Amino acid sequence: MNLIADFLLAAGAFSTAVYCLVLSRRLKRFTTLETGMGGAIAVLSAQVDDMTKALERARSSAQTSSAALDEQVSRAETAAARLDLILASLHDLPQEPPAQDEAEDERRPRFVRRRPDRAGLRLAE
Question: Which of 32, 48, 78, 93 could bridge to 36 as Cys pair (CB 3.0-4.6 Å)?
Answer without folding.
Answer: 32
